[in-house]
Write a sequence for this structure.
């Protein structure tokens, strides 16, 4: 029975059915399924399937956003359950992410944050229009080993460089990997400003984050 419930949750996430994802999660909890099991065997396979469909062209951005929102809604139910059981989902790394100062574009950055969380990262989303100082403070506070910066305007791309320079000036750069993204951003820009990588979409960002963490000495 539990297997069927988990498969149903995965399908709900993949298809972006938020109501079904929430209802399935509630039913699984009521049936005594552990929150971590719901995450590992329900939500995560569902969002991975959505990501695979996006990469091969079967899904488009609205589909991926719907899947991410379905997973986020289910996670809102599971997080207090995890805390009450003093459990934690397995974490690959700790990410500080935000859209840089002067830019208020939300959707792409939020999707990357959700996908990273779904894939096993602890994510601290700073929101939009994030000042340089806030990135630095968050890296310190959360002891992050990854920083993700989005810039959707050519006029705000330079802030990504300034954040990297500030990380270096504060003695934090060696301890974090930096990912950048956004419509006007590319690998050439990432290399130019000293970032560790560029991702063109949320699925690519997850793969990049995993590679960067794997390449970080223990």
């Amino acid at each position: 029975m539990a297997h069927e419930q988990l498969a149903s949750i995965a399908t709900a996430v993949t298809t972006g059915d938020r109501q079904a994802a929430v209802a399935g999660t509630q039913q699984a909890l009521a049936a005594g399924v552990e929150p971590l099991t719901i995450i590992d065997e329900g939500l995560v396979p569902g969002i991975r399937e959505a990501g695979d469909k996006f990469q091969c062209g079967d899904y488009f951005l609205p589909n991926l956003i719907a899947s991410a929102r379905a997973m986020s809604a289910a996670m809102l139910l599971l997080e207090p359950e995890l805390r009450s059981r003093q459990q934690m989902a397995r974490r690959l790394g700790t990410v500080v992410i935000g859209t840089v100062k002067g830019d208020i574009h939300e959707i792409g950055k939020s999707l990357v944050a959700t996908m990273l969380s779904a894939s096993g990262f602890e994510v601290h989303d700073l929101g939009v229009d994030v000042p340089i100082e806030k990135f630095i403070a968050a890296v310190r506070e959360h002891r992050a080993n990854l920083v993700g910066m989005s810039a959707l305007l050519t006029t705000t791309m330079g802030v990504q460089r300034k954040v990297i320079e500030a990380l270096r000036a504060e003695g934090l750069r060696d301890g974090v990997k930096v990912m950048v993204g956004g419509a006007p951003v590319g690998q050439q820009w990432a290399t130019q400003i000293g970032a560790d990588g560029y991702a063109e979409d949320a699925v690519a960002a997850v793969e990049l984050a995993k590679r960067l963490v794997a390449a970080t000495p223990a």
